[in-house]
Amino acid sequence: MGIKQSKTTSNNKLKAKATVKVEKRKKFRSLRSNSNIQIITIDESINEAWRFTGSGKRIHYAKNSKYNNAVDKEVERLQKQHCFFKRIWQSNYSTPVEEKLRAGAKVLDIGCGPGTWTIEMAETYEQSTFTGVDYVPLFSQEMELANVKFLQANILDGLPFLDDSFDFVRMGLLVTAFNATELKEKVIPEIVRITKPGGWIEFMESDIQYFNEGPTTARLTNALSSFMKSKGILESLNSYIPQSLEGNEKIQKGIQTEEKTCFVGKWAGDLGKMAVEDIANGWTAIKAPLSKAMKLKSQEYDELVATFAKEVEQNRSYFKTWRFVAQKIGSTTSISDIITTTTTTS
Ligand SMILES: C[S@@+](CC[C@H](N)C(=O)[O-])C[C@H]1O[C@@H](n2cnc3c(N)ncnc32)[C@H](O)[C@@H]1O
């Protein structure tokens, strides 16, 4: 092949690669505005951070991790979950950083999963730069915008950033990833270290307990609760997360807690429908360890999840989700300037 011909071939390859990138980005954008969510396919087969359980199911793997979710279909589940929580909250964050984000801030999303939040924020606030980290690269480098970076890192081993690096650090739905001691002694100190003085920290979490729960829901939540306790994970997130944050000497006193109530079931309209799907997908994601702990066969566990979906309709079940907002000492704006709201979402 002559030099000219090989140049043309490599140009064509580059063009093809660029087209794939643009197409993937188009798909990704439609995800946010469209309730008919489109999913991006990421090659999950080559990831060494995922291990196979005895049943052949792949689950997250890191020596010190408490996170036991199946990774098959995890990208799709988390993308849908992002849309669900955004709909509950009607926003991507509660921290008073809008002005900073418009002016140009440095933002970190810990446990970013497929990076749905990160990319959505990066597209909204083009002046700011966003970094997503996850110890399992569910994100796709193909999705990178000029102001987004994704990195593979385990927060329990420390994050590869200098002290005082970020204006805003966010962590969403990592409840099953750390025990109480790890949260207080490793995760929060590491987040505080990399947050700038006066910078903001926000956690969004969801309660694992349901109100108006029927017997099957109770069976599943009790099993999950025992499973979490066996790993040292506490359930009372709405008290222990703010306490752990406030216990850090570099965090200002007065952690802001916001709460939303979400009804579960078709009886509660579109959002309730999304809730049943999201929760059922969640039960499926932790099927391998939970069915083992409950001594249930695969089919028996699936039947429980199907019964859960029916039961929430009869019982009109609901659950709570929280956002916890903290500020690192060294600020000019006081945390007491934030307005507290407790809203019921239907
Ligand atoms: C429920 S997902 C939440 C994804 C994303 N934050 C969202 O709100 O859509 C939790 C994510 O945390 C990641 N994770 C769990 N333990 C982690 C750790 N020790 N360090 C970094 N990421 C972790 C998991 O790989 C998973 O992608």
UniProtKB/TrEMBL annotation:
Give every Methyltransferase domain span: 103-207
- What keywords were assigned to this record? Methyltransferase, Transferase
> What GO molecular functions are on record for this protein?
methyltransferase activity
At the top level, the lineage of the source is Eukaryota
Q: Name one GO biological process term.
A: methylation
KW Methyltransferase (keyword) present:
yes
Identification of the protein by name? S-adenosyl-L-methionine-dependent methyltransferase
Lineage of producing organism: Eukaryota, Fungi, Fungi incertae sedis, Mucoromycota, Glomeromycotina
